Structure prediction request, 126 residues.
Amino acid sequence: MSVTNLNRTPEHYDDGNDSIVIVRDLGDIPGGRSLDVSAVTEDVIRAGHILISNDTTKEVMPLGVSGEAYVTLPTGWSYCGVLKHTVLKTDARAAILTIGQVNAAACPYPITTAIKNGLPHIQFLN
Prediction:
């Protein structure tokens, strides 16, 4: 299970899209989750990134990326939601949108039909 040190000095990163990615927040995961970032190569996980959850362990991690697109959902995983705010890999405490509207044009990677079908309570606009 992922663990986050809550006593760290906070760092902040915003590429300008944090304020426009989430159009309407109607529901999220209370308290958020610490992300498993062991497979992430970037130092920053941007707002709007798709998050997935392991069906057995309930571990949450960012959906993998290849080139400029999301990879296919791995077996044994489900779509969990959308990252509400940019986080650093070194401090991966995530607020996760599960119901609402997302500006797909402001997301870091294109939103596929599979993602839209896997997150039926999120409307991806644009």
